[in-house]
## 1
Amino acid sequence: MQKNLFVWAHRGASSISPENSMTAFRLAEAAGADGIELDVHLSRDGRPVVIHDETVDRTTSGSGLVSDKTAAELLDLDAGSWFSPDYANESIPLLTDVLAWAGDRMRLNIEIKSEDAGLVVLEVLKAFPQARILVSSFNHKLLFRMRQLDHSLPIGFLTDSRFWRLAVRRAIACAAESFHPQQKYVTRSLVSCCHQHNLTVYPWTVDSPSRKNSLRRIGVDGFFTNIP
Ligand code: G3P
Ligand code: CA
């Protein structure tokens, strides 16, 4: 029997709606995604906001660094028209709004993009004890720091390195729950090494049906996709 793979909607249902928007998250849930991946930066006034880039230029009507704007200024921007005029009412979500929406229903993979957001996210999560979360980052120093502060935090070790053995060793040292490799580096050896160490394997970002199938055969536990 085929095992059920865990489908992470990458930035929500981002192939059919503006990435990292509430609409993208709702559509991902409607499509049957098991979890939602989202990206977090910090506003000038210290609120975690859900946006991928360091600047607002690509995905909103504004320009400049996320970290130079207050949360109120960020929420005022049109974060949907860049994708389609149909989404002109979309705004950048606050992480707290997504956590409140997800409740204990939807698992969230919170990817920390800016170093200063890491410890703030830990504080924010205290108000959402029911949340089902997995925290990840390319910033491994930050992941180790978060692990020191929270021994039970579910951590996904995110890497774009082709030197996966080294990355797996670090993931084990960080007591990560899962390993998130760039999909092109995923092989049977990588998966079996992770499984030997109780790390689930979620490659990113996989949209082609044939690659989804080949990864299934290789034995991954799920994947990130823009097409959940
Ligand atoms: O977490 C997987 C993936 O989201 C990492 O890359 O650039 O899409 O945030 P990026
Ligand atoms: Ca991401």
Note: Strands lie at 6-10, 35-42, 48-50, 107-112, 133-137, 155-159, 178-181, 200-201, 222-225.
## 2
Amino acid sequence: MLEPATELTGSLKVPGDKSMSHRSIMFGAIAQGVTEVSGFLEGEDSLHTLEAFQAMGVRIERGGDGAVTLYGQGVSALIPPNDPIYLGNSGTGMRLLTGLLAGMNIPAVLTGDVSLNGRPMRRITDPLSRMGADVGTAESGTPPLHIRQTKQLCGIEYTCPMASAQVKSAVLLAGLHANGVTTVHETAVTRDHTERMLRGFGVEVVVDGLSASIRGGQQLNATSLTVPGDISSAAFFLVGASMTPGSNLLLTGVGMNPTRTGVIDILTLMGANIQITNQRVTGGEPVADLQVIGAQLQGIHVPEKLVSLAIDEFPALFVAAASAQGETIVTGAEELRVKETDRIQVMADGLRALGANITDTPDGAHIIGKRLLGGTADSCGDHRTAMSFAMASLISDGPITVLDCDNVNTSFPGFSQIAGAAGLHIVETNAG
Ligand code: S3P
């Protein structure tokens, strides 16, 4: 339950980047040598990936506070898991692991929670089967996934029909152990953490515009890497502070990979005041501190070329739009319908229940900003919709109850404490 709040102030650091945390485990586990990771996200999603590799015989130690040591012995040391691998809520965990295991010819069964078990997987099994993999899905094209042994995979050239870093990564990771070269062509820019981090492990990945290629048979060499703060977690605070005049908030150590910064561009187009300071590079990724001064936001038509660069930030951006003067139009964002929930539907239903003027469309929404009244919003078990509805308490006249919030721990353990210290009035209850 959240009482209305007025502004966000102070300084905070969000937990480590989820996308990079998954990859740091996958790559460290199959590398040769000892990989030290700091800033690892100790959230449920990335911990499931860590446990998956422990179940495959890799020694991995957690030192607390985001420190992880992986004792990699190369690919051949991995042993097929005895039991199905449970990946919780995580599409990244499942899709990337499938590509990696299929390429390495390690038989396994991958499963997840109710949300993950309802998500589309043919987007990866189709290209993987073209490479020679045998990965079965349920009849509906959803998990559980059954990775069966085949002969060695062959590299392919694949054009990704949707903007998806998970599909791109699954194919490239299968290509890492396939014969020949594997190339993925994309139609829009998506996050490039796989390409960057593989290079950090000594793998040659050739990127040419919207195409990425990898030669099979390359070995990963252990490295040390620092995972920066997750811009997708920072996004809730960027939105919360940007839309409330009087806010003055510093977010330190935020990952600023240019394939992830769409949320800053979109908020800036809406009139937000976000200063990027202390820019540096850590572990091959740009990092910065972000100073946010509250303002009255204006509605815009979100440029479609920014959609894939802010895909996880739309639940929060819908709240920014609900506060903005005039109309905000989101188009070209149909991928939001196949995330942890149908995020267009869940945000439209929830914001409407709080008094917002929002019309959902097949690929986005039309939102006319106004003060909210308060009420009950159902996150439907989606971490990002839950945290977005929490931020709506900054533009609401009445209290807001957010239902089904447990999954906030998948990406942002400690959210309530951090948000409370910055100015939200959150009371957690066990009612959901
Ligand atoms: C991710 C890619 C995106 C994003 C997800 C993390 C990744 O998914 O939504 O939260 O780590 O590669 P899609 O590739 O399905 O767009």
Note: The domain at 20-153+192-201+216-226 is CATH 3.65.10.10 (UDP-n-acetylglucosamine1-carboxyvinyl-transferase; Chain).
